[in-house]
Amino acid sequence: LAENPLKQYSKRPGTFVSLPSDGKFYTVPPEMSADGEIEIRPMTASDEIKLKNPDGLMNSESLFQVIEHIAPGIANAKDIPTPDLDIIVIGMRLATYGQFMDVNVTCKNCSHTENYQINLSNVLASAGKITAPDKVNVGGLVVSIRPHTTESNTMYSNYQVELLRAARMVETNVMENKEPLNKQLAEIMAKGSQILYEIAMNHVTSVMMPDGNSITDKSLIKEWLADLAAPDYQLVRDAVNALSKEQIDRNVSFHCTQCETENKVEVSFDPANFFGASSL
Ligand SMILES: [Zn+2]
After folding, report:
1. What is the model's pTM?
2. Distance 113 CA to ligand 1 centre (A)
3. Residue 7 CB contacts under 8 Å (≥ 6 apart), including other chains
4. pLDDT at 197
5. How far is the CA of 248 from the centre of ligand 1 (A)?
């Protein structure tokens, strides 16, 4: 089959970004340049359509598909540590629309809204690396951990949806007989705690015993986690959270032209907000 002669006209240069993880923690390590960077290509129109959602809710499946398209060096978008995800998403914005991104910022004193231009190259250049320990000692065992991933983040959102469902059920309940409600609530809570266990399991890659033998079998790790004392479980969770810490600076400072107040605000790099009011 002959190559489409139009193809040479649609190739656009991408950009290269350095990952906070340096490619660590992935099941399949990403393809990196000699400088340890990954390539990010500009979004195509079809990528953009996938991210534009009429109800404003980001569909994680669509985001995963787009990321695997624009970052061909990443085999599985669900596997991306969350500190890397921020960088990839900002790189995607930069490769597609250039280094400047306009956001609306609101003065905390007078509520005046101004336009602020963020330099995405600076945000990427000042991003940190993951330096927290990836091992934690729990009662004589050395537990190897990895950060939150795009997948565990999605699972956590699902858990929060379950909790909201339970809360709404309690709120709207006017039944005399509480038994059916209690049963339903117990089911929802059980489902929620199951999700939390799945997430925890996702974050433990191996457990080394004092004799030097390592356990990597997921079902054995799951059983061990389920039996873990609450304070020990907390140790693992805190270590995973430290490892997952965001490595970009979201704070911008701006001077309000209306009331002269100096403001510090946090900006979001959520891809759902990338397109502003532009429409199809
Ligand atoms: Zn103001």
Report:
1. 0.85
2. 8
3. none
4. 82
5. 26
**Strand, coil or helix: 264:** strand
Residue 228 carries which DSSP code?
Answer: S
Task: Examine the pLDDT at 28 and tell me if it is beyond 70.
Answer: yes
In sequence order, the 6+-apart residues with CB closer than 8 A to the CB of 84 are 19, 20, 21
Query: Model confidence at 170, in pLDDT bands (50, 70, 90)?
Result: confident
Q: Which pair of structure tokens corresponds to residue 239?
A: 């270590």
Give the CA distances from residue 70 to residues 20, 42, 138, in Å, rounded to whole numbers and listed in that order.
18, 6, 40
Residue 251's nearest CA partner among 232, 268, 230, 271 is 268
What's the pLDDT tens digit per position in 199-256? 888 899 999 999 999 999 999 998 999 899 999 999 999 999 999 999 999 998 999 9
Residue closest to 148 by CA, chosen among 78, 98, 218, 95: 78
CA 12 to ligand 1 centroid distance, Å: 41
From residue 21, give the alpha-carbon distance in Å to each of 24, 142, 148, 269.
Answer: 5, 21, 12, 19
In 173-280, which residue ranges form alpha helices assigned H by DSSP? 179-203, 218-227, 230-243
CA of 256 to the centre of ligand 1 (A): 5
Cβ atoms < 10 Å from Cβ of 91: 25
260 alpha carbon – ligand 1 mean position (Å)? 6
Q: Scanning the structure block, which residue is given the tokens 């340049």?
A: 33
Reading the block at residue 263, the tokens are 């403001």
Q: d(Cα 136, Cα 8) in Å, to the nearest integer?
A: 51
| CA 112 / ligand 1 centre spacing (Å) | 5
